[in-house]
Amino acid sequence: DLESHLRRCQQLSVTVLTDHQDLNNTELKTILNSTAPQQYRIRAKLRTYKPQKLYQSIKLHCSKCNSLQEVPDGDDFDFILQGSAVTAPNPELHNTSWYDSVMWTTQDQKQRKIAIHFVKHDEMLQQPEDTLLMIEGGTLKEVWKLTKRFKCVIPVRSTEDDLELLDLSAPFLLQGNIKYYGCKQCSTPKPIKSLSSVAAEQRLSWEPTEIAQVLGIELLQYVFIMKFTLVDGTGALNAYLFDY
């Protein structure tokens, strides 16, 4: 499968180089029978490539467990947000020492309760472009609207004692038009109050890697992967393109 091929590529099983002019052309049969790692220049035809659609080449990769997964679509995120909106925000968790909160009820038939928590720095609210906020009860459209104005958006829900992240099938952080995901297998999510240590830093930057670390999230990276089958009359070779 793709994951096992990825592991082989990362272990430098065979490296095929097609643009080194100082190397002579090598038949694919010779490469298939060689031991790793080697460098070769080849002349071959492209028989097939996968996936056929370019957007399908983008995957999420965990550097810790080496797993690969599909990038969830917006419908999955919307479904998780709808499910979390069933639980009303807990007013006892509002307006702490490190964030200010506002809550209101929508005027539609569902009368959803929405809460937004604005994280402070030095006990002061920041400019929108520097602000991290947490939202409860928001729809996908509302979340995306907030990302256009504020630096970071974290979807959360209330428990009795603290705010917590949603299911890791959803992005744990949104920054601009980028959604950041965590590995379900390697992450051990911590309570949202763990963010207060970052908010207290003298130079506050809200870097996704730092946010992930304090929240116990193993950050997934977007990778580009394609499989090519090359032929030259002496054999067929599968080549894998893997790039961050």
Description:
This protein has six helices and 14 strands. The chain is of the alpha+beta class. The model has no long low-confidence stretch (mean pLDDT about 90).
Task: Report the β-strand fraction as a percent range.
Answer: 25-35%
Q: Provide the residue-averaged pLDDT.
A: 89
Radius of gyration over alpha carbons? 24 Å
Number of strands: 14
Low-confidence stretches: none
Distance between the termini: 20 Å
Number of helices: 6
The dominant shape is elongated
N-to-C series of helices and strands: HEHEEEEHEEEHEEEEHHEE
Q: Helix amount, in percent?
A: 10-25%
Largest sheet: 5 strands, antiparallel
Structural class of the secondary elements? alpha+beta
Summarize the structure.
This protein has 244 residues and is α+β, with helices and mostly antiparallel strands. It has 6 helices and 14 strands.
Give keywords.
244 residues, alpha+beta, 14 strands, 18% helix
Question: What secondary-structure arrangement, pairings included, does this model have?
Answer:
Layout: H1 2-10, E1 15-16, H2 28-32, E2 39-40, E3 45-50, E4 58-61, E5 68-70, H3 74-84, E6 99-105, E7 113-119, E8 132-136, H4 140-147, E9 152-158, E10 163-165, E11 173-175, E12 178-180, H5 196-199, H6 208-214, E13 221-231, E14 236-243
Parallel strand pairs: 1-2, 8-9
Antiparallel strand pairs: 3-13, 4-5, 4-13, 6-7, 7-8, 9-10, 11-12, 13-14
